[in-house]
Amino acid sequence: MSCPDDTPISAVAPVTAVHIGASSVSMLVAQKGEDGRYTPVDFLEQPAPLARDIFRHGSIGRETTERIVEILNGFVSTAREYGARIDLESRAVATNILVEADNHERFLNRVRIACGLEINPIDDGEMTRLIYLKTRRRLLDTPPMKRKSAMVLHVGPGNTRALLFEDGAIRRYTSYRLGAHRTREAIEGSHNGGEAMLRVIRENASGNLAQLRFDYHDVKVSTLVMIGYELQQVRHFLTDRSGSCSPKTLRRVSGTAAEMSDLELVQHFQTDYQSAEALVPAIETNLAIAEALGVEDLHIPASDYEQGLLQDILVSNQLTDSLDREVLRSARILASRFLSDANHGEHVSRISLHLFDQLTDLHRLSPHDRLLLEVAAILHEVGTFISPRAHHKHSEYIILNSEIFGLDRRDVTVIALVARYHRHSGPRLDHPAYRELAPADRILVSKLAAILRVADALERTHNQRVHDIETRRHRHRLHLVLPGVSDVAVERLAMESKGDLFEQVFGLEVVIADPA
User: Fold this and answer.
1) What is 9-121's CATH superfamily?
2) Cβ 87 vs Cβ 126: under 8 Å
């Protein structure tokens, strides 16, 4: 493909998205339009038993590795024929179960050397972004999702994620160590078929089902929208023309499939062997969750799961404002669940962001870091639910053991530690969670905690007295002017104990100026 010298190549050259999935490797070649949307040009997919190796042996076998290398080299050749760009605008990712393999780094190095591709495993944050993109489309094409309460359920290869929507907005997000391929390998040794296999699947899922029932015991879910690779492959066996199905249909198809051999599953459902192996666990897990929640109104989207995933991979990094709003909504729901003082948390958040924005040249942090500070400020006192005494430690514990939609475990750990360090001791290497962070993340925690401590000192009265703040730097001091506050004695006293970390991190003593 050729173009005039003065035409930007990005306007004409296709880009690619590559996904090493649990049971297949796929590539989408797409053209980016002027509106930023991607139009598919070609889609390729080949089976590969990655999940089987990981869940059965704990590592990726040589045969599977070379199979994937062969597929990827073929994809690279095809991309070049299209004149597609395999660069920063293209994406190459792998299923999040990849990191469970003992030799996943060796596998990634082999792909890098053999194919010239930098593969990034999908983390929790990326996975929630991808599910969020799928869910936004479902809001448009699945009217039942706009009802009072609807749940999007994603049974993946190794984990299940549930997103509760109320009136079209995310109200709760949970995840469980329960997946179609993980279940398949867990029950493999039972050698059971038919009803006996289904009983073993239910027994394997019982702990997660009990947790899910507890997590949503206070909600009446009216509609369940089920997404997932295996389930959407066999959608036409399960749904009517509108995409609706019933627990009765799932039960019938699951029972029939459980009686079949893998070869019969491949022939009957027109799928590959790797997908066939996980088909019964996928259907039965969705059915078990529908029954656990008492939901009769079930829907399975018509779109191709894998091709849609690849399109979403190309745009997931572009999500900013809309996803940030969902992250903050999730944080506020978590704060309310633990009866945190919302007025105090929100006011500390506003002060923290005000300081962050005025001191950008000092801290040199990113917009995403700003989001983490905002969440930490909202949640910094959730630990008072357990006890006011040492509540900063309780806050760390609660946040570390919670899900915040749109954030990965690294983000959640940073937030938990920033909340912990809003009072008393600053970061220390004898604190396990802090010690285990990468050096760059330790610096991030220290910077954000330093800002949060100053903001919390300015809201010491819990009466939202401080609104406007003027910052002035002079030599080794940061002077804070608080317009409208006639007596700053309380804030000064609080700053004596909370301004220390800011001085240690940024080299500036925090001083509250006398009222004008």
Assistant:
1) ATPase, nucleotide binding domain (3.30.420.40)
2) no
